[in-house]
Amino acid sequence: MQWYLVAALLTGILTTLSQSNGKYKYDYATIPFLAELFKLSFSSFFLWKECQSSSPPRMTKEWRSIRLYLVPSVIYLIHNNVQFATLTYVDPSTYQIMGNLKIVTTGILFRLVLKRKLSNLQWMAVVLLAVGTTTSQVKGCGDAPCDSLFSAPFQGYMLGILSACLSALAGVYTEYLMKKNNDSLYWQNVQLYTFGVIFNMGWLIYGDFKAGFERGPWWQRLFNGYSITTWMVVFNLGSTGLLVSWLMKYSDNIVKVYSTSMAMLLTMVLSVYLFNVRATLQLFLGIVICIISLQMYFMPVNMLVELPQALPVTSK
Amino acid sequence: MQWYLVAALLTGILTTLSQSNGKYKYDYATIPFLAELFKLSFSSFFLWKECQSSSPPRMTKEWRSIRLYLVPSVIYLIHNNVQFATLTYVDPSTYQIMGNLKIVTTGILFRLVLKRKLSNLQWMAVVLLAVGTTTSQVKGCGDAPCDSLFSAPFQGYMLGILSACLSALAGVYTEYLMKKNNDSLYWQNVQLYTFGVIFNMGWLIYGDFKAGFERGPWWQRLFNGYSITTWMVVFNLGSTGLLVSWLMKYSDNIVKVYSTSMAMLLTMVLSVYLFNVRATLQLFLGIVICIISLQMYFMPVNMLVELPQALPVTSK
């Protein structure tokens, strides 16, 4: 889990570093495709190694099971489109703040789809996590531009909520897939990322089609403007994805949501030192809220409260 | 407790209403004196009625006990001076934000002086309450003037912390006094407010002395510029004080601190409707945080978490 924190931490920093004068010299749409290719290659290699070992891994090969692994890619495709649509109605900072809703929608789908029960205290913790991350993102005195959060069109908010639901659905469904059976993690990854590569390739082709093939086919443009930092972004995005798979199989979506939020806060703190971003009161408050949320969710109950001592043996 | 909420709610609203063009036409220093006088009269009247009744109230009349009731007035005197001194180093909004520290210092002194134990979860709740109220007060995008919270002189922060400690000490000591014995609440109030009137009168005389008696004695100026609203401010301040006494005897400082915070948030919400103040995201976030804090502190444990069922009878 610590590795996921590091990877998520690097994501924000590397993406900022890879910009030149605030612009991307490379085609940003190529990044997810190459990341999926990297994840697929990585998983294929380790699956092959597992097959060479003395105890071959479990692999469910029926098409009936394999076809389920395209569902996350489909959901992400719809989600990306909803994301673009939302950004036509709201500005990026409003979109970022609405993005915190996916913490709550993940908790809700966690309960509804995966049937994992949360205590009332844990529900409060999940809400607090969303509130804490939002607090750290509140635009402070003097931050420009000063767009109002509450004056976007109604459709913008609806699409934002839909985006949060789709994000959560993708995560929860992936966890369902990974935990469905005892197949090798790498075999499950291979299925997942094969569909990921196919869908991303389709997306690049569609982008060419929409541009009327003016810029030539995507595979010719693929590495245009790539620097060392760009490759690090690809590598980092791929690594983050691999770690998420591992979390989905051996941990759960709530742990992932906490890790992502903590990494986001850490990134903001590091930005104060690395990129001279101004430290704000709301960042400090957000950190305190999220740390308390973390303890509320994960701390054993007997460390939180005084438990009643000698309950009768025959109590229900 | 609900009456305290109403009274505290009215305080902010009435004080704003009593201003004319943002200024006070009356001498604000006369308000606390008249409020103490009101509280003393009120308590004396009801004490007299209690003495007339068939079961006379308990009254501890030894000077050794009575003299303790001047301690809160002394602490408030020092606190007011520290408050003035702090405001020479920091601006009013920074002072308001530091004021939330008294929630935490109250909790600490509650534990140290009154020996009331808080579970870890309740400590988190107290911290969250302070964080929640602070969040609601964060200056948003476009709020002028844009003073930095972090650029005040070091002494300003030290004095702010001292102010929070003194506030907490006064509250905790008052609760200690009120719960020390089973004396009539009104008898305790009479002692408390007699010293309050004396100290406030002394403060007004001192104010005259410092001004070189240029404006004439305070009792001549006492009601200058008083309108109906000003009298409502006096009445409201007095009522709030009386309700705090009741809370100190029959409830505790933590309940008072929660009530004050909730009233403050409600005031801000009402200000959106009454005074056209802009609704902000941080106000909404602050309300959510404080409501969760309230539940964390006061909800019975079995409603918060799943308690383990059949513990052995002989467990320690």
Automatic annotation (TrEMBL), chains A, B:
* GO MF terms, alphabetically ordered: pyrimidine nucleotide-sugar transmembrane transporter activity; sialic acid transmembrane transporter activity
TM helices/strands, residue ranges: 68-89, 95-114, 121-138, 158-178, 190-206, 226-248, 255-275, 281-299
Q: Give the keywords, sorted.
A: Golgi apparatus, Membrane, Signal, Transmembrane, Transmembrane helix, Transport
Question: How does the protein associate with the membrane?
Answer: Multi-pass membrane protein
UniProt keyword ATP-binding present = no
Q: Where is the signal peptide?
A: 1-18
List the subcellular locations.
Answer: Endomembrane system; Golgi apparatus membrane
Q: Name one Pfam family in it.
A: Nuc_sug_transp
Tell me yes or no: is Disulfide bond among this UniProt entry's keywords: no
Q: Name one GO cellular component term.
A: Golgi membrane
User: What family does this chain come from, according to its entry?
Assistant: Belongs to the nucleotide-sugar transporter family. CMP-Sialate:CMP antiporter (TC 2.A.7.12) subfamily.
Q: Which PANTHER family match?
A: NUCLEOTIDE-SUGAR TRANSMEMBRANE TRANSPORTER (PTHR10231)
Q: What does this protein do?
A: Sugar transporter involved in the transport of CMP-sialic acid from the cytoplasm into the Golgi. May transport important nucleotide sugars such as CMP-Kdo (2-keto-3-deoxy-D-manno-octulosonic acid) in physiological conditions.
Q: What is this protein called?
A: CMP-sialic acid transporter 1
